[in-house]
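Entry 14. Structure prediction run on the chain below.
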Amino acid sequence: MLLSLDVGNTSVHGGLFDGDELKFQFRRTSDSHSSSDELGVFLRTVIRENGENPADVHQIAICCVVPDAIHSLRGACQKYFEVTPFLLQAGVKTGLKIKYRNPLEVGADRIADAIAATHLYPDRNLVIVDFGTATTIEMVTRDREYLGGVILAGMRISMEALGTRTAKLPQVEIVRVDPKNILGRSTIESIQSGLYFGTVGMIKELKERLTEECFEDPKGQGKPMVIATGGFSGLFERTGLFDAIIPDLVLKGLNLALKMN
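Output returned:
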């Protein structure tokens, strides 16, 4: 079986694959100071608690945007699973043509998203919106050209900024807000509405502008498939912004990247 690990700034998102079947997913808080023993024990425990045998893990694939965490992760894989992990990084096969001015700058999670999306929807132009610590938008052509995208502060960063940079505004739970009740009638409701519909408005505007800029005939045969992924993607299921919502897109991309390499 394959253990896939997406290590972000806020959380570690993992999943266990048996072939192409994703058996289960899990999350834990990211901590670049975690030791290899802490990570190894956690991974073995979470696998057992989900009814699987850690000894059946023969491959591990990692994408990581926290460089300080890589050494401990690699050590945990080698000590607790006797596996040298595959790391999605510059120089590995991706099946993509990276059009960034400096391909080394593209985050591994963004590449994993694009790998999975082009596999799931071949011969389609793609807009991929990843709702993580940062909200990112990726533009990928039907010819598997990764054109680039947009990065903006994620919902949690925006919420925490309001809570820490103002004297009286509290931190709030990030929730889906009823489109018939945008008007907040308390401070908490007002912040929640602003976070949610501010994000909806930004995505709608950026999606339209990027689609027009990047794809020929964007309203005809060149019309892109618009995909949402990431921890907060499920909040936007009823907005009509997306053709598909696939929260585990990065994990699927890691699985495919390992097969390519």
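The longest strand covers residues 21-29.
Filed with the rest of this week's runs.
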